[in-house]
Design a protein that fits this description.
It is a single chain. The chain is an alpha+beta fold. It folds into two domains: 53-119, 2-Layer Sandwich (Alpha-Beta Plaits), CATH 3.30.70.20; 123-349, Ribonuclease Z/Hydroxyacylglutathione hydrolase-like (Metallo-beta-lactamase, Chain A, 4-Layer Sandwich). Helices cover 25% and strands 21% of the residues. It has ten helices and 20 strands. The strands form six sheets. A seven-stranded mixed sheet has the order 7-8-9-10-11-12-13, with helices on one face. It has a five-stranded mixed sheet with strand order 14-15-16-19-20, with no helix packed on it. It has a two-stranded antiparallel ribbon with strand order 1-2. A hairpin with a 4-residue loop joins strand 15 (250-254) and strand 16 (259-263). The longest helix is centred in the first third of the chain and has 15 residues, at 27-41. Residues 147-307 form the Metallo-beta-lactamase domain.
Amino acid sequence: MALRFPYCSNSCYIFRPIGNHGDHPSSLKHKQAAIRCSSARSARRPQNVPGEFYVDHTCIDCDVCRWMAPNSFTRVESQSAVYNQPSTSTQRVAALQALLSCPTASIHTETPPADILQAHSTFPIPIHEDSLPGVYHCGYHSKKSFAAASYFIKRPGGNILVDSPRYSERLAQNLQELGGVDYFFLTHKDDVADHDRWQKRFNCPRILHEQEVTADTAGVEIKLKGKGPWDFLGPDIDLLFFPGHTEASVCLHLKPLKVLFSGDSIANIPQGYLHVDPNFNWYSVDIQMESIKTLLPLDFLWILPGHGRRAKYNNVEEKNKAINDLLDSVYVRVAPLPSIEQNHLQKASLHGMHPLHSSTK
């Protein structure tokens, strides 16, 4: 008799015997088949151009490498691929940063890169040193958070980690050199990843709305109550109640730099417009759109999202036009709006990663 255990995400299995009687007669055959399956998934996709960098078949189409290193990565047949090998030092650094940030370790080089430690040292990455001094992209995206981006804010009132990257001691050391983490703000329940390891590393209080707390985050030190806004982090920051994507998502408005950290509530997409996806809404699209309306009077010019791409506007009028275009879009009006109950059932049945279906190069 044998017990069957999952071996890889393609549903191959190995058979393990009960007791100490050696391998089940079919064990070696199934194990070899599983190894072949695993190797096939980690093999170079034929859609990659020849050269050092490549993407394998485990890519989950999260779009991260394509916006981190757009000169090297594109989308081909619903997965990423290298369309242009890095030809300058800047392009190479960006490609290595994307490799290190890939949540599923789907990006590889033909031989170990000699400059990988230098690439590690570039994190966190300044987003725009002129417009957003002290605001960084952490990289090291986590599969646990469906490849969501996390950010670091260096400020006199206390440094803030926004959502959780994959834990990396190298990143932790780099953050320590920038002054460490004083507060750990979690926009909602989806993007908490390795929150416990980061909290222990920096002994920083985590902030999460009480309605977003799960068994995994029961130990969160600061649980927001009610509908805010909350300004206890200082006069430069408002935490904004933003239900819709989840029951009690919260956005962070860094007022002096005019930037909104939006979590999964709103994002830009490669086609150049703001977007919400009803297919990945866990509470109510109607309520999410009502929350988005509250952004119109706010003074910000940047949107830094968890999923999707950053948005930068020249003025508030341009920002408001983009928001109104989203509110008026045919896509939102004609798309079926799943009920709260349907969304909870959908979430319960979702396993693994969710791609951004609209992603392109």
